UniProtKB/TrEMBL annotation:
It comes from Planktothrix agardhii CCAP 1459/11A. InterPro entries: GTP-bd (IPR006073), P-loop_NTPase (IPR027417). This is Small GTP-binding protein. GO terms for molecular function: GTP binding. Pfam families: MMR_HSR1 (PF01926). Residues 170-271 form the G domain.
Length: 283
């Protein structure tokens, strides 16, 4: 019952139909490597021609994935962690698909223009406008919700919101070795370690606690990479099944400039099943 109600309130904020998000986002990383000589270092962005080609190729990859997995474009985004390219669209997908995604609303990715020429960054800073206070908007939206959700359901939602806000958002990050997990975590979430990463049991999974630049905290579960050997994958699968159901979101990173996604497709399908078996994170 609560699962449906939670989906209903989430749909109010996102404007989507009231269905439970899968809690899985697939990121196509390293798109800056797709087009030789296609990156404008002065602006730290692709050239116009390269950007169109990157978009075309990524759409082809998304179609390819769509034929073999149960996720849609709403769950996939392309980006470059190293160049901090398209981190905002990526974060938007993460917030939309995460359980209690509003808790990730104060994440502020690293600024791509910090890597551009100083005069370019100065110009961009001058053109930027202040953002509207999201907290004020949230309060106004809750007043509107009272008119569309029964009082008993609204009380259940508010009680759950109070419980959720006491817990930092928990995101699992997974991918093959070399896909850029560490760079993605550092630049997307743009936080500082609260404590040194801790290893879970005797596994290679690491729990990383971050203090966000805008305030608040975030827990990242850095899962060991798959695809190196069948024996290793079998061992790691036990880790995945143990940790993934407790997360608000699973972020699976692919290397956009590769041609073989067979291991990734297999992993996406496994994660999809695990998340469907646990539509609400295990606490």
């Amino acid at each position: 019952m609560f699962e449906y109600i939670w989906a209903k309130i989430s749909s109010f904020f996102s404007g989507k139909s009231p269905k439970t998000p899968l809690r899985l986002v697939v990121g196509l990383n390293q798109v800056d490597k797709m087009i030789p000589n296609g990156w404008n270092k002065r602006l730290n962005s692709p050239t116009d021609e390269a950007e169109k080609e990157i978009e075309r190729r990524c759409k082809d990859i998304i179609k390819q994935l769509g034929k073999n997995v149960e996720i849609s474009e709403e769950n996939i985004e392309y980006y470059s962690a190293l160049q901090r390219y398209r981190l905002i669209p990526l974060l938007t997908k993460i917030i939309q698909n995460a359980y209690a995604g509003f808790k990730l609303g104060n994440v502020k990715p690293a600024d791509p223009f910090e890597l551009a020429d100083p005069e370019v960054k100065a110009f961009v800073d001058q053109q930027r406008q202040k953002k509207v206070d999201s907290k004020t908007k949230t309060l106004e939206d809750f007043k509107k919700i009272e008119n569309i959700i029964p009082e008993t359901d609204l009380k259940l939602i508010l009680d759950q919101l109070q419980k959720e806000t006491k817990l930092p958002p928990k995101v699992a990050v997974i991918g093959k070795s070399g896909v850029g997990k560490t760079t993605t975590i550092n630049n997307l979430f743009n936080g500082q370690f609260k404590t040194s990463p801790t290893t879970v049991g005797t596994t290679e999974a690491q729990i990383k606690e971050f203090t966000l630049s805008t305030g608040g905290a975030l827990t990242v579960v850095d899962l060991p990479g798959y695809g190196r050997s069948e024996a290793e994958d079998r061992e790691y699968e036990k880790i995945y099944q143990d940790l993934i159901p407790s997360c608000d979101l699973v972020f699976l990173i692919l290397q956009a400039d590769t041609r073989d996604f067979s291991d990734d497709i297999e992993m996406i399908n496994k994660i999809t099943k695990w998340l469907k078996d646990h539509p609400i994170p295990k606490r």
